[in-house]
């Protein structure tokens, strides 16, 4: 909303809602996933803040008029509301949608750690949806993109041999910071190749031909928020407050897709490792720093915007229709 | 030598030798470090394979005629021989230099794991030089670049609280693969920005806007050789065969300087952490996945070509002169 871009509401199944997005591209991504997956809906609306209300957004052969998020009755008739805005928008308008009976699928971090709110990756934790039903207002949270990509690979292993400790180092694409960051990476790269000083509008660091610590705020314990999301969300997701997790989150000059180096220490020895998820898992090695096959090093890679956000949200919505 | 570039011998202190280099830039880097550090030498020669012999190499205000590595008496009068060629050159000619009384400082991996050969990082392990003395033929090995950068930071911590286990993920610059790889990264980047297919002469992978597993050969245990160097060299360097080490080595599209995410698990709780080495250490966090302050996450960064090779070699030579 800070960019004044139009953003969005949608009605899915019966009706649904797209939360106000920081950038229009988030909504396009949701619309694209909905279209590609042939998600069934009766009507589809786009909502945004009042500044964007009235704007028109064309996607494929349809045109949408953005509706005001704050208008009275904005959520009337909405069954599924996909929020892809910041945490403050979700906190402010999510409960209003729930009060009208909508199931809010929230991509922000606002409700992830709320014990009442399920944190869901459909392929690996359908049971986490619990009693959430269409027509009964509720919030379902999408985990953080780095968490989703890591847990897609680690969760089946956790079920198989119980993870005691996990050490993660990430290689995160600039697109996680938005379309503008991706464009600035291209611009900076061209500038550096031409020997010019790189333009720095988004981050203070140069990202062309450079890596840097993730831009999330650094907390008192020295970890940044992105790292702590991985720690806390993993504990909640696995319903295991004792699991030991540490993470180091780094941005690399890559346009799209996050990669992660994940070291896993297990309670039980491993016999066989299977990888069958959409997140690519490679470099699978028995960790030679741990005895009795009780450790594994893997390298995972996934599209942090698709599986890490939009796709996961639509998959959650699909579960509601089952 | 595969590139037919001239490479090199040098005589340092009394006299010294530069081993045949894969690329001329390695020698320039050594010459630059020698010059910048005002390394005292009586004479300085450059040696290379016979194909390069007779070629002239200008550096600053001097010109060197490259001498034939295989010529009889090539090492006569050489006190310190800095080998910056591949392992095969070091294996073939290193012992010949030693037989003539030279101290060989070898940047290759050829002798690193030899129990008779000290593995030295001058700032952190001067005592590893043992009985090596100028005038008494011997080989001293330079550790692998990723190992040096990691152990510059980890060794003082190890001495302080004893590392039980170390989990490393690297972010390695293309220049580690040579000047040609660095040039190809620039070329590929320009091509990708222009929407063209990237030229791939050095590696099969695209490295512009991409990351990939380190190009070292993958071994039967799934680790690649770069990773195993970190494991084995750390054990030898710390003289601790029980220390648990695992590594994941990744190349990132950065021109120069390696970075590493290092997780350290200690025997004793930590009280205070100091960082005082040339290798930059940041993001220092008590590892919250381990109790009683028995773990640390750090992010280290260093020039893998300077400290990781040429500088370390010259520093070893400097120790010999003391």
UniProtKB/TrEMBL annotation, chains A, B:
Active site: 145, 258
GO molecular function terms noted in the UniProt entry: NAD binding; oxidoreductase activity, acting on the aldehyde or oxo group of donors, NAD or NADP as acceptor; protein dimerization activity
Sequence ranges assigned to domain Semialdehyde dehydrogenase NAD-binding in this UniProt record: 26-132
Database matches in CDD domains: ASADH_C_bac_euk_like, VcASADH2_like_N
Gene3D superfamilies per the UniProt record, alphabetical: Dihydrodipicolinate Reductase, domain 2 (3.30.360.10), NAD(P)-binding Rossmann-like Domain (3.40.50.720)
InterPro entries in the cross-refs: NAD(P)-bd_dom_sf, Semialdehyde_DH_NAD-bd, Semialdhyde_DH_dimer_dom
Family: Belongs to the aspartate-semialdehyde dehydrogenase family.
NCBIfam families: PRK14874.1 (NF011456)
Name of the protein: Semialdehyde dehydrogenase NAD-binding domain-containing protein
């Amino acid at each position: 909303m800070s960019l004044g871009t139009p953003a969005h509401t949608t009605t899915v199944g019966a009706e649904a809602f797209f939360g106000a997005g920081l950038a229009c591209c988030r909504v396009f991504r949701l619309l694209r996933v909905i279209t590609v997956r042939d998600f069934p809906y009766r009507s589809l609306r786009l909502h945004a803040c009042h500044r964007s209300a009235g704007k028109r957004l064309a996607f494929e052969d349809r045109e949408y008029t953005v509706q005001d998020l704050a208008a009275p009755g904005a959520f009337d008739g909405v069954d599924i509301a996909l929020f892809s805005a910041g945490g403050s928008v979700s906190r402010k308008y999510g409960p209003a949608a729930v009060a009208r009976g909508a199931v809010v699928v929230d991509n922000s971090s606002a409700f992830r750690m709320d014990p009442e709110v399920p944190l869901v990756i459909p392929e690996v934790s359908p049971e986490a949806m619990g009693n959430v039903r269409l027509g009964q207002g509720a919030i379902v949270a999408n985990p953080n993109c780095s968490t989703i990509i890591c847990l897609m690979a680690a969760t089946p292993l956790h079920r198989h041999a119980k993870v005691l400790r996990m050490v993660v180092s990430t290689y995160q694409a600039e697109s996680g910071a938005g379309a503008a960051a991706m464009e600035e990476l291209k611009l900076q790269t061209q500038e550096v190749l031409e020997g010019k000083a790189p333009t720095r509008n988004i981050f203070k660091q140069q990202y062309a031909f450079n890596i840097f610590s993730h831009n999330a705020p650094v907390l008192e314990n020295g970890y940044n928020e992105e790292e702590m999301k991985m720690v806390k969300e993993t504990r909640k997701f696995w319903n295991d407050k004792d699991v030991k997790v540490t993470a180091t989150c780094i941005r690399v000059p890559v346009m799209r897709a996050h990669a992660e180096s994940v070291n896993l220490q297990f309670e039980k020895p491993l016999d066989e490792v299977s990888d069958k998820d959409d997140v690519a898992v490679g470099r699978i090695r028995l960790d030679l720093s741990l005895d009795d096959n009780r450790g594994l090093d893997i390298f995972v890679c996934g599209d942090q915007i698709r599986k890490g956000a939009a796709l996961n949200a639509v998959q959650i919505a699909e579960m509601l229709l089952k």
